[in-house]
Amino acid sequence: MIKIMSLVIGLKNKIFRKLYNVFFLSKKEEELYNYYNKTINDNSNSKNIVLIQCVENYFYFAVFGEVIKSFNKDNSIRVEQYIPRNLTLGATSNFGSFLKSILLNNSIRDKKWIKLYSSYADSVAYSHENSTSFLHNIKYFVKAYKIFANLKDKHDLLSLIINEVKVGDLIYDSYLRFKPASTVDIRDLYLIIVIWQCIRNIEMTNKYFVQNKPKVLLTSYSSYIQHGIAVRIAMKFDTKVYSFGNNQSIAKELTINDIYHTANFNSYKNNFELFSREDKEIYLEESKTALDNRIKGMKDISTSYMKESAYKISDDIKIPNVKNHIVIFLHDFFDSPHIYGDMVFPDFLEWIEFTINLLEKENIPYSLKPHPNQIGDSEKVIKMLKVEYPKANFISSKITNKQLVNAGMCTGISVYGTVAYELVYMNIPVILCGENPHSSYNFVYEAKNEKEYVSYIKNHRNLKLNKKSKEEVLSFYYMHNLNKSRSEIRSLDYISSFRNYSNENRLDFNEYKSFLGNFEKNKTFTNIIKV
Q1: What strand order describes the sheet that includes 393-394?
Q2: Measuring CA to CA, which residue among 408, 409, 422 is closest to residue 469?
Q3: Which of 37, 43, 93 is nearest to 61 (CA)?
Q4: Average pLDDT in the 273-285 region?
Q5: What residues have CB less than 8 Å from 175, skipping those under 6 apart?
C-alpha cells in the first residue's frame, strides 16, 4: 500500500513539474537565459531595430541569439520580439481540445518564452493574441465574415488578397494545419476564425512596421499566417528578412520576388552551366558519390533532417508486387502544401483523390506509398482513403524506393517530392504537378495544369528519359545540396544535428553550450547576415 501511495505521489509530482515547466522557466532554461543575459550588450535606445519571432523552440532561440550577438559586435541595435501564437492545433475539434487550448496555450505560457527571449531582446513589439481592442476585433470579424460569405470555391480562397497583402495560400495552409483537416471546406465556420486572425495579424503587423520600420526580421518560416504575414509586410517596408527554416542553407534572405523559406531553385540549371567544363565534371562526380551512398542507405546532407535513412532496409517487410505499377508517393496531408508556390490542385487530398479516380477509370495498376515522416493525423486520412478506395494498393512507407524499382514499378507520381530525382536517377520516369525544386530542369514531367496531368498519366508508358536525364539529376543534386563552401557544408551538418537535438526537447545545458560555442566560432554563420 505504501509503495502504491509513493508511486501515486511521484506521478503527481512529475505531472506538476511538467505543468509548471509549461508556464515557468525550468532551472535549465534559466541557465540559458543567464548565458545570453551576460553576453549581449544593452542598446535599447538604438533606432536600428531587429525584429525576431518568439518561437517556442530551443533551436530558433539559440540561432536568433547567436545572430544578435554577431550583430552587436559591429552595430548598435535594439531587439524586439513578436509573439506569433494565435491559432491552436485542434482547438475546435471538441470541448476537451477547446478547454485544453485555453488552459495550456495562452498568454501565461507566452510570458515564459517572452522572459527567455528577453535575455537578448529589449522589448515586445506586438502579440498576435491580444494586441487589438475589443471594438477592432468586432470590426475585423465582420470583415472576415464578408470575405468568407463571398468565397465561391477553393481557388477564390487561394487567390485572396487583403489590404494589398497576398494571403490566400497562408490562410489555406493554416486551416489545414490547425483545424486540422486534409482539405478546406469553404463553408466551415472555422475558416472565418482563420480569416479573422489573418486580418488581425495584418493590421497589428502593418501598424508596427509603419511606426518602427525595423531594419531586419528574423523568422523561422514564411508559411502559415503566424510567419508569412510578417514576412510579406516586411517586404513592403524594405526590411531585410532572413529565414532559418530550410535544410539547404544556414539562412536564406527572402525578397519580394522570392517569399518562400524553401531554397530558390529557379536558376539552378543556368548557374550550373556557368561553371567550367573541368569543374562540372568534378561536381557531377561528387553528386554521384553522394547519391549512390544515399541509395545504399547512408544519410547525406539532403536528408539530415530525417530520423533515419529512407533507404534503410527493413528485413521484416515483404516486398509488394508493383510490377508495371504507377507508384504514388504521398505527402503529409497536413503539411503546408504551398511552400514552393502554385500547384495544379488546391491541396494534397484533392490531388490524390483525382489521381486515384483517374487511374481506376483507366484501369491503370497503381500503388500508394505514405510519406515516411507524416504526422498522426495523416494516418487517419490514409485509413479514410482505404475505405473510400478498397481497390487501392497501399504499401509500407518502410519499403525503400530502390526496392520498388527492383520490384518493377514503371512510373512515379508526386506533387513536388524529392523522390522525383531519386527515381529518375534509377531510370524511372516521374510525373509532378506543382512548382518544385526540379523546375528549372527537364528530367521530370511537370504538369502545368489538370489537362496536362491527365495526359501524362494516360500515356505514362510512353514517357521516356533522355540521355542527359541522369546528368541533369546530378547537376540538380549539386546545386540543391552541394553548391556551398566546405565550411558551410560542415555548418549545415552541425546545424541539422542541433535542430534534431532541439526538436526532441532535450535540454542538457552543457551539450547545448557546446552547440552554441560552435556557432560563435563559425565564420560562415556569423558573416552570413548583415544589418
Answers
A1: 393-394, 366-369, 326-329, 411-413, 430-432, 445-446
A2: 422
A3: 37
A4: 96
A5: 181, 184, 190, 191, 194
Alpha-carbon distance of 52 to 45, in angstroms, equals 17
The beta-strand segments (E) located in 5-67 are 49-53
Q: Which residues are CB-neighbours of 314 under 8 A, at least 6 positions away?
A: 396, 398, 399
Give me the mean pLDDT over the 343-352 stretch.
Answer: 97
Q: Are 263 and 446 a contacting pair, CB within 8 Å? A: no
Q: How far apart are CA 498 and CA 176, in angstroms?
A: 28
d(CA 374, CA 53) in angstroms, rounded, equals 26
Are 54 and 82 in contact by the 8 Å Cβ rule? The answer is yes
Listed in order, strand segments (DSSP E) in 3-63 are 49-53
Q: Cell 479514410 belongs to which residue? A: 384
Q: Which three three-digit cell numbers place residue 180?
A: 486540422
| pLDDT tens digits for range 122-136 | 999 999 887 778 899
Query: If you compute the radius of gyration of the chain from its CA atoms, what whole number of angstroms results?
Result: 24
Q: Is 205 exposed, middle or buried (0-12, 13-18, 19+ CB in 10 A)?
A: buried
Q: Which of the four pLDDT bands, split at 50, 70 and 90, describes residue 206? A: very high
The answer to whether the beta carbons of residues 140 and 200 sit under 8 Å apart is yes
Structural contact between residues 334 and 380, judged by C-beta atoms closer than 8 angstroms: no
Distance CA 174, CA 222 (A): 12
Kindly report the pTM of this predicted structure: 0.90
Residue 208 grid coordinates: 508596427
Range 283-290 contact pairs with CB under 8 angstroms and sequence separation of 24 or more: 283/474, 283/475, 283/478, 283/482, 283/483, 284/471, 284/474, 284/475, 284/478, 286/478, 286/482, 287/473, 287/474, 287/475, 287/477, 287/478, 287/481, 287/482, 288/474, 290/477, 290/481, 290/482
Amino acid sitting at position 377: D
Q: What is the DSSP letter of 320?
A: P
Residue with cell 533507404: 311
- Per-chain mean pLDDT for the chain: 87
Longest dimension (CA), the chain: 79
**C-alpha span between 224 and 219 (Å, rounded):** 12
Place of cell 557546446: 514
Q: What residue has cell string 494589398? A: 164
Joined grid coordinates for residue 177: 494545419
Residue of 245, 261, 293, 248 lying closest to 493 (CA atoms): 248
What is the strand order of the sheet 240-243 is part of? 123-127, 78-83, 49-53, 216-219, 240-243, 252-254
Cβ-count burial of 485 within 10 angstroms (0-12 exposed, 13-18 middle, 19+ buried)? Answer: exposed
User: Can you tell me the mean pLDDT for 257-286?
Assistant: 95
Cell of 90: 485542434
For residue 202, which of 178, 175, 236, 173 has the smallest C-alpha distance?
236
CB burial of residue 387 (10 Å; 0-12, 13-18, 19+): exposed
